[in-house]
UniProtKB/TrEMBL annotation:
GO terms for cellular component: Golgi membrane. This is Polypeptide N-acetylgalactosaminyltransferase. Its cofactor is Mn(2+). SMART domains: RICIN. It comes from Photinus pyralis (Common eastern firefly). It is found in: Golgi apparatus membrane.
């Protein structure tokens, strides 16, 4: 019966799959929709692919007039139910021209009504939960923006109005961070005055950055819950009650929605994986990881239960207003963009709060591949000084680790005055970063005093293990374990951590991995997402210098072909020099 069911599911799956990919040639322009759209196994509507014009086409720069114009011209059915917008081949050049303005498909966005419908992507059970929402505290929804498009900004606003219970909506607060667009001035004032939910606009004549802008909103907010959103989001049914319910239970919880994807080309609404949680890598870049192991098993009982996350993405969350200010609001030394999500996450956890992802809350965010606006002071300078502040205030010796390997941040760290934030840390009696790593993120891949950290050198070949850069994506880093020249400089690409449990891990949560049982043919060793399973457990023998795979007792070795592109292998332990490895510690703190 199981096989039959699988077969049936496959048939249903294939049958419901509609291929809409096609190539059109219009004159000399190739228009490739290159897009596939289907209902997946979970019944969720998925759209993949992008509009690809002919790369050879000359696309003129967007004119100033185009930049300042509001060309919102809705077509009643465009983007309905979160479906993708289809652009006709004749419009492709214009589409690409408009794309430059906001780094998303403005033409598509401008065709979608502000109150478009979206699928209800929640788990069924979510729909009957939160029946007592009328008892919850009221929210002020704060949306900050710099030069946002009319259609994305107001679709965000309308999705809040249409899908939040009026009883728990205090107000919407728009904070304009010195936008230059004409249509965001008087026309927006006039429009906002007609909305059915009280909406106010705070304006800045100088660029203050997103942290200051959010603080301005928070200071005037009347609701006892603050809900922050980016200016290009779309909320779905139940998004607000499910988050506020957690804050109602425990006002020291920061609640985050599951962040779905609004495709930057087609504006399709794509449900994303519910079991992602947020952390960061050695460069302090925010990263999603997947729930696994015991945490996942615990959820099997009830997958609508909120789960903890070490950090949040930053843009979309709900927080008790009192708690937010008691915790120190935001670090006002953070400029323009970046780092504030880690800063608030560390502070929340270390100073007595917690962060959770609420699976019944789904909000779409328009993800872009690049940023459309200027960074006064320079992108690098801004981002690195923000991250330097985070490291200096919250990360203790892991801050030293960050600065050791990040020259840019190290150069500007002394320019930062973080004394008031250090005072806050001691005033709030916050725990240290070791506590955070041990308790909030026990699966982390950072070095610690109880772990080996450094190079892994093969003595036979005098080459070092490196983290493969090849076929990896941000979601699924994996590849073949390779050797390379041992570098004179200490670079992260050659740095590994070996834990007490025997996991050999490196940045972005990837681990040295090999099959558990002997197979026919070469036993290939890979670098794969860390799983915590025994196939990733190793034992280092200091005397023989062998790295032994714990479950099959074979030794890490160089392939007999000596072709390092093929990666490493496991062989029976035979004392050969290619099976000897030196674990060379590097001081990181
Ligand atoms: O100077 C500025 N002033 C602003 O008002 C720069 C930006 N902004 C506004 C901007 O218009 C937008 O509404 O701030 C908001 C965030 O800027 P985005 O949309 O350019 O940022 P992002 O979505 O690329 O970046 C993510 O990281 C940021 C780091 O500072 C913020 O935390 C964003 O809120 C955050 N977005 C999300 O978390 C959405 C989900 C992304 C993921 C994962
Ligand atoms: Mn954003």
């Amino acid at each position: 019966p199981v096989i039959f069911l699988c077969l049936l599911l496959t048939i249903v799956f294939v049958w419901r799959r509609v291929e809409v990919g096609e190539d059109n040639i219009v004159g000399k322009h190739i228009f490739r929709k290159n897009q596939e759209e289907y209902i997946d196994r979970r019944g969720v509507h998925v759209v993949v692919g992008h509009y690809v014009g002919n790369p050879a086409d000359k696309v003129p720069n967007a004119t100033l007039e185009m930049i300042n114009a509001n060309n919102f011209a809705p077509e009643p059915n465009a983007g309905k139910d979160g479906f993708p917008v289809v652009i006709a081949p004749k419009d492709i050049i214009k589409m690409r021209q408009l794309f430059q303005i906001n780094r998303f498909n403005l033409m598509a966005s401008d065709r979608i009504p502000l109150n478009r419908t979206l699928p209800d992507v929640r788990k069924k059970k979510c729909k009957s939960m939160y029946q007592d929402y009328k008892e919850y505290p009221k929210s002020s929804v704060i949306i900050v923006y710099h030069n946002e498009a009319w259609s994305t900004l107001l679709r965000t606003v309308w999705s809040v109005i249409n899908r939040s219970p009026r009883e728990i909506m205090e107000e919407i607060i728009l904070v304009d961070d010195a936008s230059e667009r004409d249509f965001l001035k008087k026309p927006l004032d006039d429009y906002v005055s007609t909305l059915p939910v009280k909406t106010r606009i705070i304006r800045n004549s100088e660029r203050v950055g997103l942290v200051q802008a959010r603080l301005q909103g928070a200071r005037v907010a009347k609701g006892s819950v603050l809900v922050f959103l980016d200016a290009h989001c779309e909320c779905t049914m139940g998004w607000l009650e499910s988050m506020v319910s957690r804050i109602n239970d425990d006002p020291t919880t920061i609640a985050c929605p599951v962040i779905d994807i609004i495709n930057d080309d087609t504006f399709a609404y794509v449900k994303s994986f519910e079991l992602h949680w947020g952390a960061f890598n050695w460069l302090l870049q925010f990263r999603w990881y997947t729930l696994a192991g015991p945490a996942l098993q615990k959820r099997a009982k009830d997958n609508t239960e909120p789960f903890v996350t070490p950090t949040m993405a930053g843009g979309l969350f709900a927080i008790d207003r009192q708690f937010f200010f008691n915790l120190g609001g935001y670090d006002e030394g953070l400029r323009v963009w970046g780092g504030e999500n880690l800063e608030l996450s560390f502070r929340a956890w270390q100073c007595g709060g917690r962060i959770e992802i609420v699976p019944c809350s789904h909000v779409g965010h328009l993800f872009r591949k690049s940023s459309p606006y200027s960074f006064p002071g320079g992108v690098g300078e801004t981002l690195y000084s923000n991250l330097a502040r985070v490291a200096l205030v919250w990360m203790d010796e892991w801050g030293d680790f960050y600065f050791k390997f990040n020259n840019e941040a190290r150069k500007i760290k002394n320019k930062q005055d973080v004394s008031s934030r250090l005072q806050l840390r001691s005033k709030l009696h916050c725990k240290n970063f070791k506590w955070y790593l041990d308790n909030v993120w026990p699966q982390h891949f950072f070095p610690s005093r109880a772990r080996f950290f450094g190079r892994i050198r093969n003595l036979g070949e005098n080459l070092c293990l490196i983290k493969p850069l090849g076929k990896e994506t941000s979601n699924q880093p994996m590849g073949i374990a390779k050797l390379n020249q041992c570098l004179k400089e200490e670079l992260l690409i050659e740095m590994f951590v070996m834990t007490r449990e025997g996991f050999i891990m490196t940045d972005d949560s990837v681990c040295l991995d090999a099959p558990e049982k002997q197979v026919i043919g070469p036993m290939k060793v890979r670098i794969m997402a860390c799983s915590g399973y025994s196939r990733q457990k190793w034992k280092y023998n200091k005397n023989t210098k062998q790295l032994v795979h714990v479950s099959n007792k074979l030794c890490l070795d160089v392939p007999s072909s000596r072709k390092y592109e093929d990666g490493l292998v496991l062989n029976s332990c035979n004392g050969s020099s290619t099976q000897k490895w030196e674990l060379e510690s590097v001081v990181w703190h």
